[in-house]
Design brief:
Length: about 55
């Protein structure tokens, strides 16, 4: 794991509502983040995170 990225007890990467990690400018999504349980939810999270990256 990259030094400085906060993780959960499960070993997933902590992200905010936009997929931003504890390192400025670094985003995470998909199976490595908590909360995504279905393909549809993962796709939705990916689209949300993409918008945040481009803001």
């Amino acid at each position: 794991m990259t030094k400085g990225i906060k993780t959960t007890e499960d070993g997933t990467i902590e992200v905010d509502e936009n997929g931003t990690t504890s390192i400025d400018g670094v985003f995470a999504g998909g199976d490595i983040t908590p909360g995504t349980t279905t393909v549809i939810e993962a796709m939705s999270a990916g689209k949300r995170d993409e918008r945040a990256i481009h803001e």
